[in-house]
Amino acid sequence: RGGGSSMSGGGAGRSGAALRLLAALGCVLTAEAQLTGVLDDCLCDIESIDDFNTFKIFPKIQKLQERDYFRYYKVNLKRPCPFWADDGHCSIKDCHVEPCPESKIPVGIKAGSSNKYSKAANHSKELEDCEQANKLGAVNSTLSNQSKEAFIDWARYDDSQDHFCELDDERSPDAQYVDLLLNPERYTGYKGPSAWRVWNSIYEENCFKPRSVYRPLNPLAPSRGESFYTWLEGLCLEKRVFYKLISGLHASINLHLCANYLLEETWGKPSWGPNVKEFTRRFDPIETKGEGPRRLKNLYFLYLIELRALSKVAPYFERSVVDLYTGNGHEDAESKALLLEIFRDTKSFHMHFDEKSMFAGDKKGAKSLKEEFRLHFKNISRIMDCVGCDKCRLWGKLQTQGLGTALKILFSEKEIQNLPENSPSKGFQLTRQEIVALVNAFGRLSTSIKELQNFKVLLQRTR
């Protein structure tokens, strides 16, 4: 996502790039380029995050994500893109407008017609890419009858709760439960201008950035703005944080793609695994003109933000009135116990991001900035409906909602502290969808940091 998937290149060039990236990672993964020893805008070194994630968080969050409450996510994948009419990419499931063989063209669209894609249909490589992306990007919607019956019971239980948020989208007839374990986030072939347009819209129009300052390495920009980081460093803390969160999310998604890449397909059986060359292309400091290490820094920064949110929301779940309902009392109790154990681990981390430094100015200005912050993020969540690949859209929406829920938590500390022990409250409430998104989004970040360690080992072997 966010770029092509080139598979060409010589071995010597690959080794050179791998060595450069290893050298950069050696700095980034131990003490952030040995310049500051810590991440910008917080007092935490990357090595501490690596150890904490590997030994405390990753094993438990993986186990929690496999439980029924967290493996099923209700999402509407049929909402139209509110910003442009046509995605123009064949990775949408059951796509009707892409260059596919005549036998697969829907009734009413004849080969050789004035359809703007008919010319492209003559190119066999694009046909092959279309077929692959169409297949890999499709969502597996298989659900057992037992699961479907359970969802009815879950909905009845959720409806009886006192909700703080509107549930219009969840109640849409197009919203459906998706089994996340059957739809892992990985390479789908979604790439090129379609994917870049989504990320371009996010960065260019929703990160408090003036149009005159171009994002580095943006292929859609007329020129590259050398003054980008001068501009970024001149922003207030809140706006810098916003950009880093989006950049960190982008880096995390790219890491998932590189770590779970389609390596080959033999007799219809795909083989998935880490692609060092793709990882190098996206994060090598030379190939990315210094952007790779910055992206990885922002991934760690995002991890800290969501980690902080988990530690802050613990009192909400510690109340006896809150359970993780699936109808199986024993499993529900085990799921809650494991979640509370993760919360205890998050609280034990001694170098949290201090969100009190945000929105700490005069009350009127802080309130206005917080609302602007919220609206920018809400707009990004709407852009996810423009992703032209069902599986990418699924994970994009989930991780965006997870981050949005984390921000909601960080902005609601007083409301959480004042929650009554034995009754629901209108002061602060999380829906099932928000809880599932929060845990799975953080699980994705935990996986990214773990995969980063795996790539470091692979790069050392290359050397």
Question: Describe it for me?
Answer:
The chain is mainly α. It contains 15 helices and 4 strands. The chain has helices at residues 11-31, 46-65, 68-71, 124-136, 145-159, 193-206, 228-233, 237-259, 276-283, 291-318, 329-348, 363-383, 390-410, 413-417, 432-462, and strands at residues 72-76, 175-179, 261-266, 269-273. The radius of gyration is 22 Å and the shape is globular. One of its GO terms (biological process) is cell redox homeostasis. Keywords: Disulfide bond, Electron transport, Endoplasmic reticulum, FAD, Flavoprotein, Glycoprotein, Membrane, Oxidoreductase, Redox-active center, Signal, Transport. It is found in: Endoplasmic reticulum membrane. This is Endoplasmic reticulum oxidoreductase 1 beta.
What topology emerges from the helices and strands here?
Elements: H1 11-31, H2 46-65, H3 68-71, E1 72-76, H4 124-136, H5 145-159, E2 175-179, H6 193-206, H7 228-233, H8 237-259, E3 261-266, E4 269-273, H9 276-283, H10 291-318, H11 329-348, H12 363-383, H13 390-410, H14 413-417, H15 432-462
Antiparallel strand pairs: 1-2, 3-4
